[in-house]
Design goal:
The protein is an alpha/beta fold and 267 residues long. The protein has one domain (4-264): Alpha-Beta Barrel (TIM Barrel). The chain has helices at residues 13-25, 37-42, 44-56, 79-83, 105-120, 151-161, 171-194, 218-222, 247-264, and strands spanning 4-7, 30-35, 60-65, 88-90, 96-100, 125-129, 198-203, 229-232. The protein has a six-stranded parallel β-sheet. β7, α8 (218-222) and β8 form a beta-alpha-beta unit. α1 runs parallel beside α3 and α5 (105-120) packs parallel to α7. 39% of the residues are buried. Bound molecules: zinc ion (ZN). Zinc ion (ZN) is lined by residues 89, 101, 103, 148, 150, 152-153.
């Protein structure tokens, strides 16, 4: 069994080195270092050094794209979104969103470069951290609206389904968004393979079965060629005040389903 922990919020190697000793002492085999847009803009040399001292401590290294473009998990802001307001997602009610469109060519070029940089730091595994389309409930938008409803996505939808994209999310929209996420992963995963880096993915857990923000079909994600590790992260604290929420049911269901998808595709 491999055990690991995520590490973030500190970019001072001499302090990190001490923490890594502690992490190793607690029987971890790997550490996940978050990498944000700010890290790559201002501390690329430090990120490389962090990977090296982690290896020197006897730990394998995973790295993610920490909230990059506002489409992955993480508590960081996106410079790409601030600088590219024409490439962001739109809600079906017309509101522009603080998240890059997953179908934006410019964003995909940026992300490919970003992940290529992570690979160049010498990591063992790249961690696709909760790739998703905008979550309206998470940011206080009406639950009936969804994204991305930008002109580019509407055009792609029409090309694939021969009709206009509906204003309300339905099963076809779910499928379209799943295909968009899969196409993004398929486009970038070769960067990992060329660098001999493993591809891990963590899909968002489902509060209820059928919930879908682009990775709802776990079979579709787990079956992707470039994905070596499949997982989910049923954090429960933010849901505790939801009426009828049952922690044990939530964690158990998502864990059992993740394990089933991983086993099915030998991930
Ligand atoms: Zn879009």
């Amino acid at each position: 069994m491999e055990t690991g922990i995520s590490y973030f919020g500190n970019r001072m190697p001499k302090h990190i080195a001490k923490d890594l000793v502690d992490i190793k002492k607690h029987n971890c085999t790997y550490v996940l270092h978050t990498c944000s847009e700010i890290d790559q803009a201002y501390y690329p040399g430090t990120m490389k050094e962090i990977v090296k001292i982690s290896h020197d401590s006897g730990l394998k290294v995973q790295m993610n794209s920490w909230a990059v473009g506002g489409v992955f998990g993480g508590e960081a802001y996106s410079l790409f979104v601030m600088q590219n307001s024409d490439e962001v997602q739109e809600l079906s009610n017309g509101k522009k969103l603080p998240a890059a469109c997953l179908n934006s060519k410019k964003f995909r070029v940026f992300l490919k470069q970003f992940i290529g940089n992570c690979v160049s730091y010498g990591i063992d595994t790249f961690f696709w951290d909760e790739p998703h389309f905008y979550l309206p409930w998470h940011f206080g938008d009406a639950p009936g609206d969804y994204g991305c409803f930008c002109p580019n996505c509407k055009k792609l939808y029409r090309e694939q389904y021969g009709k206009a994209m509906p204003k309300k999310q339905d099963r076809t929209v779910d499928e379209f968004r799943e295909k968009c996420v899969a196409s993004l992963l398929n486009e970038i995963n070769p960067v990992l393979k060329r660098g001999r880096v493993e591809g891990a993915i963590c899909v968002l857990p489902k509060l209820i079965e059928g919930e879908n923000s682009g990775t709802g079909d776990w079979d579709r994600v787990a079956s992707l060629k470039g994905i070596d590790l499949f997982t989910t992260d049923p954090y429960w604290t933010m849901h505790l005040k939801r009426p009828g929420f049952n922690v044990e049911e939530f964690v158990r269901r998502n864990t059992v389903n993740a394990l089933a998808a991983a086993k099915k595709y030998r991930k």
